[in-house]
Design goal:
There is one protein chain. The protein contains ten helices and nine strands. With 286 residues, the chain is of the alpha/beta class. The protein has two domains: 172 residues, Rossmann fold, CATH 3.40.50; 96 residues, Pantoate-beta-alanine ligase, C-terminal domain (Pantoate--beta-alanine Ligase, Chain: A,domain 2, 2-Layer Sandwich), CATH 3.30.1300.10. The chain has a six-stranded parallel beta sheet with strand order 1-4-3-2-5-6, with helices on both faces. Strand 5, helix 7 and strand 6 form a beta-alpha-beta unit. Helix 6 crosses helix 7. It starts with a strand and ends in a 5-residue tail after the last strand. The model has no long low-confidence stretch (mean pLDDT 96).
Length: 286
């Protein structure tokens, strides 16, 4: 595995592969890798000739009261994991490499960035979209691999790629979970034993809500109320939001129809956990 830290080094490392028209795959991460990240790496290795992984904790997507300084970091650990996965290139840029002195340019995806998580994290998706746009320009991959756990991020980045005509294909991979159903997250390390034992209620509530919809439930308010009651009753979690939206547009649903995304955000202490399920609902024949 080649480790590079500058755009110049990165492009030099990819020059031969690009000349020989080898398919380049890219997995952007903020590090402190877990099985969710590694599932993206493995998908990239299966689908592409060259696998590039980046590690960059992007301060621009953290709010002033969020956990940028506390976000877990362990480059040596991450690099060891990526060597075992036979990653070809690890890109570890510095903050000054991504945002040089005098940096002024940002990318916004309007409307999609102000709902769900974006409603409570102003500026978050502006930071996400800007850094991913820059990384795509730096790596110039054929395919970028994203995880479904960050459902809103997938929709926002898909729109950015389409609107700005990036010549890259998005591949969205399933959520990887612990045996108890808890979605893998770098932030899970901060959960107390009690919180970790209770956090799987998020997925359990989503699964039961999905089953209820598949069995004929049509009321959005009943589904949202059910999930909230389930989480409140069986955990110490503080609900930030529970939402039923169109999975493509992120617009709130009045009727459960089409491709439905149920997304939730819940605080366990200071740890913010997100999870989601997507439920395709066929139109009833009239």
């Amino acid at each position: 595995m080649i480790i590079v830290k500058t755009v110049h080094q990165l492009r030099k490392a990819l020059k031969e592969a690009r000349f020989n028209k080898r398919k380049i795959g890219f997995v952007p991460t903020m590090g402190y890798l877990h099985e969710g990240h590694l599932s993206l790496v493995r998908a990239c290795k299966r689908g592409c000739d060259v696998c590039v992984v980046s590690i960059f904790v992007n301060q621009k997507q953290f709010g002033p009261r969020e956990d940028y300084d506390r976000y877990p970091r362990d480059i040596r650990r991450d690099a060891t994991m990526l060597v075992k996965e036979n990653v070809d290139i690890l890109f570890i840029p510095s903050n000054i490499e991504i945002y040089p002195n005098g940096y002024l340019t940002y990318v916004d995806v309007e409307n999609l960035d102000s709902v769900l998580c974006g409603k409570y994290r102003p500026g978050h998706f502006k930071g996400v979209v800007t850094v991913v746009a820059k990384l795509l320009n730096m790596v110039q991959p054929d395919v970028i691999y994203l995880g479904q756990k960050d459902a809103q991020q997938v929709v926002v980045l898909s729109k950015m790629v389409a609107d700005l005509n990036f010549p890259v294909r998005l591949r969205v991979c399933p959520i990887i979970r612990e045996k108890n159903g808890l979605a893998k997250s770098s932030r899970n390390v901060f959960l107390t034993p009690q919180e970790r034992s209770q956090a799987p209620i998020l997925f359990q509530a989503l699964v039961q809500a999905k089953r209820s919809i598949q069995n004929g439930e049509e009321s959005v308010s009943k589904i949202i109320s059910f999930i909230k009651k389930k989480i409140t009753r069986f955990s110490v979690g503080k609900i930030q939001y529970v939402a039923c939206v169109n999975a493509n547009t992120l617009q709130p649903l009045k009727v459960l129809e089409g491709r439905v995304l149920i997304a939730i955000s819940v605080f366990f202490g200071k740890v913010r956990l997100i999870d989601n399920v997507i439920i395709p609902i066929k139109k009833k024949k009239s």
